Amino acid sequence: MKLTDACQDYLHYIQAIDRKAEATIASYTNDLRQYVQYMQTCKIEEVENIDYSHVQDFLEYLRQDHYDEKGQCIHKKKSSASINHMITSLHVFHRYLSMTYPKLINPVQNIRTKKAVQHLPVYFNMQDIERLLDSFRDSDAEIMDKAIVELLYGCGLRVSECCSLMLQQVYLEQGFLRVIGKGNKERMVPMHARCKKALENYLTKVRKQRYARSNFVFINAKGQEITRQYIHVMIKKRLLALGLDERLSAHSFRHSFASHLLDGGADLRVVQELLGHSDISTTQIYTHVQNKRLQSVYTSFHPRAKKHKED
User: Fold this and answer.
1) How is domain 3-100 classified at the architecture level of CATH?
2) What is this structure's pTM?
3) Which residue intervals define the domain Tyr recombinase in the entry (predicted)?
């Protein structure tokens, strides 16, 4: 069986039958494209010809920088998190093939992900949040952009959740959003007054004037739904213009939402529910952020800690 055909078969399955999220499909598509390209350079066209050593060689290839004859980098090494993601993609792909075509051997069956170094989330401080929100002007584009930022930070939305938000999921009068997250899990998230005002301002002043081709909340001037790339680029440009930490991104608003709630005394289980995390351990990363910040404050201001630091 041709590897390219097997990939098309699998991608069709997760899109039409398994109904995976658009972002998940795009991620698996990208990983499998790299996998196919590597195997083709090794003159391997058939799935049956792929064995454990080929997959290991592919993963080792991803872990290194590669250059052409002119010294130009043609492939930058992947992070441990990206390698783990690739291994997961290959596992689900070959598991599907083994179940669909029982005679096929699974070459990744004994390959395991490695524990990646866990980096603490980067988040905004309140001064930067206020500076950012105060920087928006009263043009149509910036009214929409401000509403997006208010939802990302005020409701802790993922960028994909913001893009896919539909009008029927907005309960302005009650001040709630019905968010559909990963795995089509629904959760109700409240909006604070300023968040609600920014969204209402966009809906009445901007969206109502645009020719909408769908029920998506956020649409561009052509009436089409906005993309994740639009949000990421918009945020990056604004952060750059304000001279804020270059490590910050659109996803940092979600980190800030969680961290600031916990700083204010919110229960971890409530934050888990608001974020839509299935596992409490995913939410607990924000308690590590808290602990690190507490340690920093303690070291800076406790007289005995300061003295020891100076010594």
Assistant:
1) Orthogonal Bundle (1.10)
2) 0.69
3) 119-299
